[in-house]
Amino acid sequence: MAKVTISSVIDAPVEKVWARIRDFNGLPDWHPRMVESRIEDGKDATTIGCVRNFQLASGARLREKLLDFSDQNFLVSYSILETPQPLTNHKATLQLRRVTDGDRTYAEWTASFDAAPEEADKLAEGMGANVFQGGFNALKSHFAGQS
User: Fold this and answer.
1) What H or E segment, with its residue span, contains residue 30?
2) Closest CA to 63 of 93, 33, 89, 37
3) What pLDDT is attached to residue 88?
4) For position 146, what pLDDT does the model report?
5) Is the four-CA dihedral 72, 74, 76, 77 of positive or negative sign?
6) How would you classify the pairing of strands 2-10 and 51-56?
7) How far apart are CA 86 and CA 101, in angstroms?
8) Per residue in 38-78, pLDDT tens?
9) What is the spatial distance between Cα 40 and Cα 23, in angstroms, rounded to a whole number?
10) Which residues lie closer than 8 Å to 135 by C-beta, 6 or more apart?
11) 43 exposed, middle or buried (CB, 10 Å; 0-12, 13-18, 19+)?
12) 52 by DSSP, 3-state: which?
């Protein structure tokens, strides 16, 4: 099983960062690689089991299922149901934590998945650098200079 962990510190209070990312259907609002998203079957984006169907800037489509959601813990977990990438048994968690020194946010995005040994490292590297770090960079840029 391949594992990815990317973390960052964002110069904004955890409540503000969470408000920006908490919508499971809102990836296109804050992540530069995502261009369109919808929740299937008319479910609410905070309903455990709802499925988001979204498109990447590359044109690829993915479907992901919400596994856990907590406003109290600033946490969202999901699994990939369909992707053009050769991986299975995917589970990811994005969690925010309060940093009291400077009223900042510690953000951590983790994932685990199965893939062929010759593909696993490349997939993990791409997921970490392009998706997770790319999202954190966008958040850091968004909050730069805000109080």
Assistant:
1) helix 27-30
2) 37
3) 96
4) 64
5) negative
6) unpaired
7) 41
8) 999 989 999 999 999 999 999 999 999 999 999 999 999 99
9) 14
10) 30, 31, 33, 109
11) middle
12) strand
Structure tokens at 119: 């593909």
Q: CA-CA distance, 138 to 87, in Å (whole number)?
A: 26
Query: Could you tell me if 100 and 2 are in contact, meaning their C-beta atoms sit under 8 angstroms apart?
Result: no
Checking DSSP bridges between strand 75-82 and strand 2-10, what pairing results, if any? unpaired
Answer yes or no: are the C-beta atoms of 32 and 141 closer than 8 Å.
Answer: no
Alpha-carbon gap, residue 46 to 121, rounded angstroms = 32
Tokens of 140: 């850091």
Q: Does the pLDDT of residue 147 top 90, yes or no?
A: no
The Cα–Cα gap between 38 and 26 comes to 9
Q: Can you tell me the distance from the alpha carbon of 105 to that of 67, in angstroms, rounded to the nearest whole number?
A: 23
Contact status, residue 112 vs residue 91, Cβ threshold 8 Å: yes
pLDDT at position 113: 97
